[in-house]
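ok so i was messing around last nite and threw this chain in just to see what happens. nothing serious, just curious
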Amino acid sequence: MDFDSAVTTINRMLIEKRPHAFNSSWVRKYAPPVYRFIQQHVRTETGGIDWDRITRALAPEFPRRWAAPVRKITRPYRSKAEVRAVLRKYHDKLYAFLAPVDEDDKDIRDIISIALVRIAQRGNVSAKEEVMRLLSYTVDEWIERCPKISYWRGYDHLREETVEGCVRRYRYSGSFVGYVFKTLEYAGRGIRPLHAYSMEDFLCSGKKRRSDTIGQDPETGELLVFGRGMSTHEP
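result:
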């Protein structure tokens, strides 16, 4: 058995059983060989079973049914060794937080983020500080390029508190970086911007300027704003 066949088996069992929710005990009950394979071969950098890697690989309809175990309240501690274990594995991919080239880079950015978030949720303050430091590069880029997030410019402390809340609350909701983006977007609606917009500002995609979304009705002469629909994805 390999990783792909393990995921295929879990997908098949989920299609057959159609549970409203499932967890590691469900996998162990209905697919014991798969559970043994995962237990032996799908591990995090700090030694636990990497269920995030499994759920990310499932068919799109199933990950949200994953019932993550309730976290035990633990005392905060510091361990840079746990952080280094993650960063050492992906040290040549950290540029993805500043300038992801393609969807593969965005996937790697999520993998790194989630690995650090899970360690932070166990109480490792060093991991929380590191993931927030890395995400700050991504958020700064959003603020510069995306009108939906640009409201946060100048609100550094409030922004940091919001991202820290994302680290604390994240269970499984798809992309962690996407979760941060949507949280900032929604929370930012109540923020009064501290800067003026320019019609020459680039939009999230980086391909169009704000002025490109403005047109004029040839009959009435009224200004028209194109592309007002809300995206459900982070840039």
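not much to say yet. Residues 147 and 203 are 6 Å apart (CA to CA).
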